[in-house]
Amino acid sequence: MSKLTSQLFASILVNAIYEMKNYPVILVNTLISPLSFLVLIFFVSRGELLGVAILGGLIMTMFQSGMSLQADLSHLKNDFKIQEMVVASPTGPGVYVAGMAISELIYSLPALTILVVLFALFVPVTALQAFAIAVIILLMFLTSVSLGFALATISSDIVQSFGFSRLITTLFSALAPVYYPLTLIPEPYQVLAYLSPTTYTARLAQALAGFAIVPIETMILDAAVVLALSAIFLYIGVRKARWREK
After folding, report:
1. Of 48, 75, 145, 228, which has the most beta carbons under 10 Å away?
2. In terms of Cα–Cα distance, which of 89, 65, 17, 52 is closest to 202?
């Protein structure tokens, strides 16, 4: 096993395998959050928005996974002082965060597996469309990981981290038009939806899946916004986060 692989595996072991093995009940939360919204939208729309809700579940799960990184990193940094040990070791912040991000995906595998199966059954897309949807959702995951890392390094308490994580996740993936089309929001209030980066990801995914009619110019603009936000938050996470304590 190479040095890089062992460093990544250590993060996965600490943050995912240990918790999944010793506290399996907490996996229930990763299933309930996206699936509860999906079921709600299914019954309210009488099944008409099932495909849109499945896409929303995937977006929410990936975004929530990235933001969960904040609370986990803060917990390991403030309660176990693991970040201090990592700083003193040859491991850089990039490798450390990459391992932790992968661990969050592994932690979310139960929910992602169910949603991917539902996607394959109820979202009729080509392989190319599915690939494009996967790319933009991964970009949103990268955005939330970068934001989560930046917030974790400046957070001084796990309670504060949970507050940030829950607030941002609720605003960006629950209240934003992720599980339903943007057009269902009354027009005067649609401008508020554009404050959430998940709005652009959701509209792109819905357009690619054929659930929304979006002009090509708007799709290009949405893609540009998603790319720009990913780059901005990645810069903040890499350059502006406090990796070493002063």
Report:
1. 145
2. 52
